[in-house]
Amino acid sequence: MLPLQNIKIYNLTPPAAKVNNASVTVASLNCIGSDYATIIVSFGTIDIAATVCKLQESDDNSTWVDITGGGMSPLPTSSDGTKQFVFFVDLKARKQYLNLVLTIGNGTTGAFVDVVAILSRLEQGVTDATGRNVKANCLIL
Asked: Does this model's pTM top 0.85?
């Protein structure tokens, strides 16, 4: 198996209505069994800057603390439509759960946001769509 196929993918914020002057709803990520996480924040249209974009961690998925150096810089702005902001996280010294805190400022309409996480360097190999946490995958050789 190729190392890049040994991953799990999670849609932490599925595409939905625009968020304006509010926090984006983001599911937490259970990182157990992996050594690395990539969290991709994708913007559609956006007419106002984000005011917060940072990672937090937790041992129990309820008490969260900010990760030192875990704030995105620069923050997404109104000119960042169709752009991605990516967190690369070495999980070896992290707590079990990660959470993205993303707040969009008060614009005219706000922002479309999608957040996807990829867990890699898994302790156990995955070989099918279910193991990768996706509906289907297509291997093209």
From this structure: yes
Cβ-based neighbours of 84, under 8 Å, separated by 6 or more: 40, 41, 42, 43
Q: What tokens does 98 get?
A: 């990660």
Q: pLDDT tens, 55-94?
A: 999 999 999 999 999 999 999 999 999 999 999 999 999 9
Amino acid found at 61: N
First vs last C-alpha separation in the chain: 12
As a whole number, the mean pLDDT across the chain is: 94
* Residue 50, strand partner residues: 104
Secondary structure (3-state) at 101:
strand
Where are the alpha helices (H) located in the chain, listed in sequence order? 129-132
Buried b / exposed e over 39-72, threshold 16 CB at 10 Å, is bebbbeebbbbbeebbbbbbeeeeebeebeebeb
pLDDT of residue 127: 83
* Strand arrangement, sheet containing 111-122: 8-13, 111-122, 34-46, 84-90
Q: Are 11 and 134 in contact (CB under 8 A)?
A: no
